[in-house]
Amino acid sequence: MSVYYNWGDVLGEVDAYALAFLGAACAIGLSVLGAAWGIFITGSSLLGAAVRAPRIRSKNLISVIFCEAVAIYGVIISIILHTKIEKPDPPYANPTALQVTQQWAGYSIFWSGICCGIGNLACGVCVGICGSGCALADAQKGELFVKILVIEIFASALGIFAIIVAIIMSTNARFML
Prior knowledge:
Blueprint: H1 7-12, H2 16-52, H3 56-59, H4 61-84, H5 95-140, H6 145-169
Helix pairs in contact: 2-4, 2-5, 4-5, 4-6, 5-6
Subcellular location: Membrane
Organism: Calcidiscus leptoporus
Transmembrane segments: 16-40, 61-81, 109-137, 144-169
C-alpha cells in the first residue's frame, strides 16, 4: 500500500485512459442532462400556455429543438474526444516520457469533456428558461415571439462556445510521443 504525501502523487497514479474516457463520458452525459432539463422546463410551460392559446403549440416547438441541439453538441464532442484516444505500440523508446505525455493527454481530454459538459448543461437550462418565457409570452401577446426567440438564439450560443473551448483544449492531446 502506497503512502501519498500530496495531491500530485495521487493524481499522478490515475490512469490516463480512464481520465480520457471519463472526460468523453462527461461531455455526452452532462450535455444530454442539460438538454433533458431544458426540454422539461420548456415543455411544461409550453403545455400549460397551450391550454390558454392553442395556436402556440407548433410555433414554440423550436425551443424544444434548440434544447435537443445541446445534446447533439455533446455527442459531437464525445466522438471527437474518442478519436484522440489511442494506444501506442510497444516497444517504447522512452517509457517515462511516454507516461508523462499520456498523463497530459488524459487530463487534457478529461477537462475538455468536463468543460463541454458543464457548458452544455448550463446552455440547456438557459435555453429551457428562455423557451419557457417565450411560450408564456407568446400565449399572452403573439408579437413577442420573435423578440424572445432572438434571446433564445443567443442563449444557445453558450453551447457553441463550450464546443469551441473543448475542441481548443483537446487539440494537442496525443497519447503517443
